[in-house]
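Slide 14.
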Amino acid sequence: MKKRWLALALALLTLVSAAALAEIAVPQPDSDLFYVYDGPNALSLETEAQIYYNNVNLYNACGAELVFVVVDDTDGYDLGAYSEAIFDAWELYDRDVLTVLSLSEENYWMLQGSSIERELTGSRMRALLDEYLEPDFAAGDYDAGVRKLFDALFAEVVDIYGADLALVDGMAAYEAGALAQSEPDAPGARASAPQRGFDWMGIAILILVVLVVISAVSVPRVRRRGYRRRGPVVIVPPPRPHWHIFGGPRPGPGPHPGPAPRPPRSPRMGGFGGRSGGSRPGGFGGRSGGGRSGGFGGRVGGGRSGGGGSRGGGVGRGR
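Slide 15: predicted structure.
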């Protein structure tokens, strides 16, 4: 009986917590960048590019994402609950790690997905925060702190999943993508149209036209004056068969085929494509809310069904 009441109480507590988190207003992810949200513009373009392009590689290697959110404040909400609400609303999953910085409250919070919780423990996250973020955060150099923390966290997650992956220069990748889009096509670089063989349909039509012309010319013309033919002249044009190129009339069309079967959906793990949907790096579509020219390309795999609710515990500044 006690177990039943305990289970009921836990279920009720879960529902209340979920309802409370749903009421917290959190920022929406940047459609071009996703892995970084920088409301107060505290981060440099170099840091944003570093986070974005290395996340692209990390996701394709092991399915993990390292998301950073920087806000002015949390509208009075506890930073831990605020971070959990972002984790759920953004549909982060069990391999993802979220770091939220609230500048006016001088606080930060790191939250990991449930499947990485055993390796990336609370004590390990605290050690990473203390070593790589805290010194610069205390000095007000948020950009440097986030950059150092991301690089260290990237190496940590790569080691956990045993991925054969190294950090790339995000800014170099950004500039290479911008250059590729700004340069015109080099001479001869455009893909030529596919070469077709003989146009059999065109040849058949040409033969048909020639036959009609020959038939029309071979019929004797009637003079308007002078000689007058007896009786009406009936010109019967030759039949117009559908000529088959190898001789003989072309058979009529067969029955109309039915609809093709629906192709299978692509799996979640894809290339730079949208979770999936096309190559992402090099796409520059404008940054919402940041005022920077140029964007990145958005989340590699899009929103994931079933995301959220698969988070572990979290740690914050001085906790």
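Speaker note: The longest strand covers residues 107-113.
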